[in-house]
Amino acid sequence: MDAIATTHPPAQSGADTVVVGLFRDEGIAHDTQDGALAALVAAGEARPRAGHLAVTHADGLRWIVAGLGERATFTPEAARIAAHRVRVRAADLGATSLCWELPHHVGDEIAAALVEGTLLSGYRFDRFRPRADEDDPQAGPEQLIISAHHDVAPAVDRALIITRAQNAARDLQNRPSNDLTPSALADRAAELVATAPGLSFELLGREEIAARGMGAFACVAQGSPQEPRIIIVRHEPPAARGPVLGLVGKAVTFDTGGISIKPSAGMQKMKFDMSGGAAVLEAMGAIAALDVPVRVVAVIGATENMPSGRAVKPGDIVHAMDGTSIEVDNTDAEGRLVLADCLLLARELGAERLVDVATLTGGIVTALGSVYAGAFAGDDAWWACVASAAERADENLWRMPLHERYAKAVRGTYAELVNTGRDRKAQPAMGAEFLHHFAGDVPWCHLDIAGMSDDVGVPYFGKGGTGFGVRLLTALAEDLADTL
């Protein structure tokens, strides 16, 4: 689906279907020549209740009056949900081109949200069932137009780039692990770099990982015959300024738990354990497409976590790239082992600010559900930057605590660190403190997105991956450029 902006009136946009919003205690701003929309309202067929839709035909076009509720509560999230409902109805009606009249006196973030809601709602993962979706009316319309009195093209164009990147991350998430292997994820990175000006690409395989002393990452990968990949993507525009932003993503393309094997129920969803890596990779594409003048280095650790005769065992001791010794108490706490070496590598490559993104713990899902991602930050000023970007991107974060007692809980008995606590208490916080060790003195924020990666119950996402983090990371890079 494409999206464009226009300052022409909706009826002159070329769309076959026009959407006009209706706020409570407000009338129709622009009606048809014969007053058909006001007539719908007068008859009670069109209502301002959020989610209510009414349809009529006038002036040779199809018109949808969309209830938007109270103006004061019409947030970007409300706009996304409204856009989703309108898109579904328009698709059922056979619309091929849809024009939203941007409600008067709203900010450009609403125009962006209408694009986001429409494109996220229109997403389809049809890689393995193309014939089944050929006649699916839910996939349309093919074009979205935002009509406004002022030029909202910058907001619409930006939203289109970022939402396409978010949907690309969803494509990666939804692929099964026999299709999206670590090597296949590396292939996607190579493809992205080849089509996105300003990006460069480097790949580390099993031998290079071992040669660099990345024993924490390597021990996770050793149980699988699939070749592990550490994917490095750089964005270094000529006009770059400010500190180097390091983005680190966990991309465990399938997590059985290893020798500490998970219960079989629900294990098929462990293909989503690469969601952090998907968000980081596709955010890099958006950052490049927007030509954000900030240097960014992304490090994505891609591997499977499998049980086998070669797999790491509970009680084994391994060494991270900086020499830190780690007891592997539980092989299902593999994400922090992957990220430990990736954080160290990002620092070696020059990162001066760090954000890691990972589906790290089930505990964060218990704590926050699918409403917030858990955030842990070792630096208040850096947290303020990340939180501001999250607010602008409308991707919810809730700051969780770091504490010396959590840090003590991940000190090992036979090695410097242990990869999980001795009981189930505060696992998200202890995982974060484990990672904090490897972030060192670099301002760092850890995002545990386990509850936000897939099946979050938001209407415009439906089932499967959400691409959570793409908008946030892109906004963070932009904000760094704007504040320096």
UniProtKB/TrEMBL annotation:
GO CC annotations, alphabetized: cytoplasm
Keyword terms: Aminopeptidase, Hydrolase, Protease
The reaction(s) this protein catalyses: Release of an N-terminal amino acid, Xaa-|-Yaa-, in which Xaa is preferably Leu, but may be other amino acids including Pro although not Arg or Lys, and Yaa may be Pro. Amino acid amides and methyl esters are also readily hydrolyzed, but rates on arylamides are exceedingly low
GO molecular function, one term: metalloaminopeptidase activity
Ranges for domain Cytosol aminopeptidase: 330-337
Tagged with keyword Cell membrane: no
Alphabetized Pfam families for the sequence: Peptidase_M17, Peptidase_M17_N
GO-annotated biological processes: proteolysis
Record has Protease as a keyword: yes
The protein's Enzyme Commission number: 3.4.11.1
UniProt cross-references to InterPro entries, sorted A to Z: Leucine_aapep/pepB, Macro_dom-like, Peptidase_M17_C, Peptidase_M17_leu_NH2_pept, Peptidase_M17_N
UniProt similarity note: Belongs to the peptidase M17 family.
PANTHER family in the cross-refs: CYTOSOL AMINOPEPTIDASE, LEUCINE AMINOPEPTIDASE-RELATED
The name this protein goes by in its record: leucyl aminopeptidase
Organism the protein comes from: freshwater metagenome
